[in-house]
Design goal:
15% strand, alpha/beta, 8-stranded parallel β-barrel, globular, binds phosphoenolpyruvate, TIM Barrel, single chain, 247 residues
Length: 247
């Protein structure tokens, strides 16, 4: 299994930001892990051009479940693929919260992504209130069951555990808490998709930064990270890539 460091630029970045991407591939021409940036959709084609010949992959941050049609403002998986994406983040908690996305919608999008030849990165995670109420595993289990397409393969799926309360807050779960959730996800996935679950990369996401990356990557069943804020600067994301490559 090749570990994955994925950066989510969210709604940040104009062409000037591509200098960070160029700096990243220059500083890390041959990382031992897979390196991925998910810029805004408007930048994917330019990012693909800037990263040509390098080992940096590109992804989208969302896609529509339909291949085409009357869906003003949306983007299809095939359009992302055509622009140069190989992955797409789906069911991020910001999409679930801002757009009311349900597990069923995330699953439909994941199927569309797979049909278009993209690897979906399906996000799951509990709110702070749910963790405080002891509901973390129940919430995550239900999200996983509802969002992951049946028949997913190891190569065709990535799952990201992103506790909502850890995103952009500087707070992270304890290492045993991360270990508990990742072991649970691996096991639950095995019930859903069988032996392929062993090869699905399970990313941790939520305030990963250079100073905590190595200890998080040492947790069993953590196969990489989904990184928001720290992916915007080549120096920070590069340090995370280096930590994952060394793990
Ligand atoms: C994210 O939004 O996926 C994320 C993990 O953000 P941050 O790293 O900024 O917490």
């Amino acid at each position: 299994m090749r570990k994955l460091a994925a950066g989510n630029w969210k709604m940040n970045g104009t062409p000037a930001a591509l200098a960070e991407l160029t700096a990243l591939v220059t500083a890390h021409p041959d990382p031992a892990c897979e390196m991925l940036i998910c810029p805004p959709a408007t930048l994917i084609a330019q990012a693909a051009w800037a990263a040509r010949g390098s080992r940096l992959g590109l992804g989208g941050q969302d896609c529509h479940a339909s291949a085409s049609g009357a869906h003003t403002g949306d983007i299809s998986a095939a359009m992302l693929k055509d622009a140069g994406a190989a992955y797409v983040i789906l069911g991020h908690s910001e999409r679930r919260a801002d757009h009311g996305e349900t597990d069923a919608q995330v699953q439909a999008k994941a199927l569309a992504a797979q049909a278009a030849g993209l690897v979906p990165i399906v996000c799951v995670g509990e709110t702070e209130a749910q963790r405080d109420a002891g509901q973390t595993l129940a919430v995550i289990g239900a999200q996983l069951d509802g969002s992951v397409p049946e028949g997913a393969t190891a190569a065709g799926l990535v799952v990201a555990y992103e506790p909502v309360w850890a995103i952009g807050t500087g707070r992270t779960p304890t290492l045993p808490q991360i270990a508990e959730v990742h072991a649970f996800l691996r096991n639950r996935l095995a019930h859903r998709i069988g032996p392929e679950a062993a090869g699905v990369r399970l990313l941790y996401g939520g305030s990963v930064k250079p100073s905590n990356a190595a200890e998080i990557f040492a947790v069993p069943d953590v196969d990489g990270a989904l990184v928001g804020g720290a992916s915007l600067k080549a120096a920070d994301f590069g340090a995370i890539v280096a930590a994952l490559s060394a793990a």
